[in-house]
Write a structure and sequence with these properties.
The protein has one helix at residues 3-44. By secondary structure, it is mainly α. It has one domain (1-45). The longest helix has 42 residues, at 3-44.
């Protein structure tokens, strides 16, 4: 494998890692948001 191919694979790996981290963070943020909305709707009843 050439050095250039190796670097490209490393860049793809870093991109994928960041994408997964962002995806996980967004899931947590969405869950927190939905829990807050649920609590707010309960308090209005």
């Amino acid at each position: 494998m050439s050095r250039r191919n190796f670097l490209n694979i490393g860049e793809v790996g870093n991109f994928t890692k960041k994408a997964v981290e962002n995806f996980e963070e967004n899931i947590v943020n969405r869950k927190n948001y939905l829990e807050k909305v649920k609590e707010d709707s309960k308090s209005k009843e």
